[in-house]
UniProtKB/TrEMBL annotation:
GO terms for molecular function: nucleotide binding; proline dehydrogenase activity. Pathway: Amino-acid degradation; L-proline degradation into L-glutamate; L-glutamate from L-proline: step 1/2. Its cofactor is FAD. The keyword Nucleotidyltransferase does not apply. It catalyses: L-proline + a quinone = (S)-1-pyrroline-5-carboxylate + a quinol + H(+). InterPro entries: FAD-linked_oxidoreductase-like (IPR029041), PRODH_bac_arc (IPR008219), Proline_DH_dom (IPR002872), Proline_oxidase (IPR015659). FAD binds at M132, Q162, K186, G187, A188, K200, T225, H226. Gene3D superfamilies: 3.20.20.220. The keyword Metal-binding does not apply. Residues 43-299 form the Proline dehydrogenase domain. The lineage of its organism: Bacteria, Bacillati, Bacillota, Bacilli, Bacillales. It comes from Lihuaxuella thermophila. Coiled coil: none annotated. Substrate binds at K97, R287, R288. This is proline dehydrogenase.
Length: 306
């Protein structure tokens, strides 16, 4: 992990910084990366993205819930997203984090909540993606995912794998046996060198390997990166290996590389925008700054704008 990224994540944990950014952050620049604090605001953002030919995955922000009441409320909030998608006829699916649904309280309780969500996704003929969190929670996440696939099949549920973890090669190989729908990301959590590649070069190389491995296995792959060099490399590889267009999509974050998103759409690629919303946006926002500290300049500039 770079020194700048470590510094951002360390500062983000400061109590005074948390209070300041939580109070003024949306005005300072968080709105660039977060599609509002309410579901109605998020749906309006989805409509605009759909109009530009972009698909969406909505994420009701929140993580590390510590009581059952909040986890149940978060579960209902996710279920409500599916009803809003249906009501407004927008092209979107949903992503969730298991710590928001009670993973740290009780994995069985979390599974019950995730069962309700997966059932709703299937009922609405939609899809839910389970996001991957930090390394201590990876195996628990995979275990819950596997249980849900056994109950509901793989058509309406997918998972995220992070290329900075050493274990991810084995995870992709195992999940690929069942042709699981995977979103491949680089990873955005602070991890020790014992479990994650410390150098960006190795993370990038592993990222490309995992994408190619999963696609070569005939498994649907969401290529989630803003790295244009990697995207260009994979575009060439996809054509050379005659990978069917219905086997992959590119994914990017709301507010990041919007021009590149539209460019890919104009070239005929399927592009999905990960679109978060909600009041608990602080952790998500700070990870976006940590991933690319230059984003902090955008925030600083907004401090001096009326």
């Amino acid at each position: 992990m770079s020194l700048s990224r470590k510094a951002v994540l360390s500062v983000a944990g400061n109590r005074l910084v948390t209070a300041l950014v939580s109070k003024y952050g949306m005005k300072l620049g968080a709105s660039r990366f977060v599609a509002g604090e309410t579901l109605d605001e998020a749906i309006e953002a989805v409509k605009k993205l759909n109009a530009e030919g972009l698909l969406v995955t909505l994420d009701h922000l929140g993580e590390s819930v510590s009581n059952r009441e909040d986890a149940l409320a978060a579960t209902q909030a996710v279920i409500d997203i599916y009803d809003a998608i249906e009501k407004h006829g927008v092209r979107s699916n949903v992503s969730v984090k298991l710590t928001q649904l009670g993973l740290d309280i009780d994995p069985d309780f979390c599974l019950e909540n995730m069962d309700r969500i997966t059932s709703k996704a299937k009922e609405m003929n939609n899809f839910v993606r389970i996001d991957m969190e930090d390394s201590p929670r990876v195996q628990m996440t995979i275990d819950i995912f596997n249980t849900l696939v056994e109950r509901y099949g793989k058509e309406h549920i997918g998972l995220v794998i992070q290329s900075y973890l050493y274990r991810s090669h084995g995870d992709v190989a195992e999940l690929g046996k069942r042709k699981i729908n995977l979103r491949i990301v680089k990873g955005a959590y602070k991890e020790p060198p014992e479990v994650a590649f410390p150098d960006k070069k190795d993370v990038d190389e592993n990222y490309v390997k995992l994408v190619k491995m999963h696609l070569n296995n005939g498994s649907y792959t969401a290529i989630a990166t803003h790295d244009e060099q990697i995207i260009d490399h994979l575009k060439t590889w996809l054509k050379e290996n005659q990978i069917p267009n219905n086997l992959y999509e590119f994914q990017m974050l709301f507010g990041v590389r919007s021009g590149l998103q539209k460019k890919l759409v104009s070239e005929g690629y399927k592009v999905r925008v990960y679109t978060p919303y909600g009041k608990d946006w602080y952790s998500y926002f700070t990870r976006r700054i940590a991933e690319r500290p230059a984003n902090a300049l955008f925030v600083i500039k907004n401090l001096f704008q009326k």
